[in-house]
Specification:
single chain, about 525 residues, alpha/beta, six-stranded parallel sheet, 21 helices, 20 strands, globular
Length: about 525
Amino acid sequence: MTKTGGELLAEQLIAEGVRTIFGVPGIQLDYALDGLAQNRESVDFISARHEQGAAYMADGYARVADRPGVCMVVPGPGLLNAAAALSTAYATNSPVVCIAGQIPSPTIGRGLGMLHEIPGQSDLLRSLTKWNGIATSPEEIPGLVREAFTRVSSGRPRPVGIEIPPDVLQAKTTAGVAPPEGDLTDEIDEDSVGRAVELLAAAERPVIVAGGGVRDAASGAALQALAERLGAPVITSRNGKGAISDRHPLALSRLAGADVLADADVVLAVGTRFITMTGQPVVRPGRRRLIAINADPADVSAPREFDVAVIADARVALEAIASSLPDGRREAPELDGHRKRERDALSVIAPQVEWLRAIRGAMPDDGVFVEELTQVGYAARLAFPVYEPGTYVTPGYQGTLGYGFPTGLGAAVGAEGRQVVSINGDGGFGWALQELSTAAKYAIGLVTVVFRNDAFGNVQRIQTETFGRNIGVELKNPDFVALAGEFGVAGERVTTPEALGAAIRNARGTDAPVLIEVPFGDVPSPWKLLAEPSIG
């Protein structure tokens, strides 16, 4: 029995466990979309209004669904539109599979001016992914897809890319689906584990720094168990928020944990780049000993100087170290004084903290919070408590303005009923507000909060403080509540934190999307607090 390359692609994606694909249809993808159309009962295709939105949705889905997110875009401008989202997924270790179309096989690299042709598309995709490949025949599609999902699910999670020309999607083949290869072996160097155990067992003031590599529940449980054995405070980075519950007596934010980190004699850095915003190590060895656990050897190289580096999955390494430590638990240090100093420091951004307190109080513990590059979003990095792994979504070091709303839509699809709240400034929301159409069409129950001050507020502040004048920062906005209504999305305007909390609480348990507009005036700058070392 013969089938097209597009039909075989759909069957292989289903065999990989794919349930949802985010994309934008186009002529080079016709046979791929037809393959999906024949399998509607097994896989959903969510059509976005922009390729950037589709790729961001795949990223948001991957962050919370415990499986890779998949996007599908046409070549050339379609892939270029998706590039910002892929760069964000790359920065945040998000397992996204990008399926990109190509121009016809015989014309690749010839510069003939084919529809959607750009020079070196494969090189472009390679720069945004940890691996990419191209199918030159329909028979290669199953193995290529199998390889992509193996790569995206092993080692450091980052996007992968697949390119398939339209003639390959249209061609007929008798090839079948490639079978799964089974679980990958978790390898670990016992010698490095032994040296890490030796240092930790002798430590008097051990501290753990947890980054985005400790994102899933299993790794979080292993982290907590080791911290309790050692009596070690756990300082979480922006990407690592949720690695340990902020209610845990050993949990500290990087603001509250600054003095603890400075006084540590042994620091265990888990799943973190361990680099400040200036490109220097968070701490240098000096009188302290430094241990790294990381799946990527690049993240333990210069300018960092670790005494021991364990190259392994976070969960595997944490469990191996814990099982080798001497029996018994150490007494945990008293940390309330550090938390009080944090609360005192946060008083300078009290307006933002009030809004965040209202949002957190209205959301369940397992609700997903998607921050943005807005004044409340900046403050959230320090002032928004997180209680479960994978429930705080950030653009990481990429800092991609406008990522929040479409990423929140994908997160809401992947969360499967858990509440997802996306906060946005009016500037960033403008990047993807057309995806209100997608939210309404597919009944994606995202709560979208838009803080409105009719300006690129942070840029405006920096320009004014630096130069005494500003340019290009004022915005002409629509009535966001009315705009949402035009798309069929329920909208509401609130003016107090209490009203915002009530609106979020009222939106629980519904599949209907909701937009909440919040008029927002000038607030104190959070940047002095955020200038503390980044430990992404």
